[in-house]
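We emphasize that the prediction below concerns an isolated chain of 172 residues; any contacts that depend on oligomerization or on bound cofactors are therefore not represented. The input was used exactly as deposited, without trimming of termini.
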Amino acid sequence: MFDLPLPVHPTAYARGIPPHVPSGDTDPDHPFALTLSRRAPTDLLLGRAAPIVLARFATLADAMQGAIDHAEAIAREAPPQLLAILDRDERLVLAGAASDHAVAWSHPVTSAAEARGVVTEASQLRAQAGRAAAWGESDLAAQLRRRADLLDARLVDPLWRVFAARALQVAA
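Result of the prediction step, given as a token string:
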């Protein structure tokens, strides 16, 4: 589904520690986990690319609200962070970019054909990012990788696609 377990962006917090999400808890019985991915170069080299579980929630609506609470704690000048909501079996339920006190949720793909198209486009963007990095264009490479990660965020597990799309309609 992703190159790594989840798309990751470096955090703007001291030592990479995200702010506390007040509306969630760490009860392992809750089915939804709000996660923040890590793909900072140091994390990759040290093998710590697994996502950080910010909190666990009893309902998808609570997890979405937890994501918004997390976004409100992000500094305005910080780059967007990709948050993902996973179910208890670590399937992607919903993902979005958090910044400027809001979360821009990625709409899930609706079919296997659309998922294949998204994977192809994300792969092409990552290839372009690799070429940009080789030419010393680190800002462009980072931007292309971010766009690829946002495309990957649409790859919701087939079990959750319809439900996640409906949840976004209700939230709107």
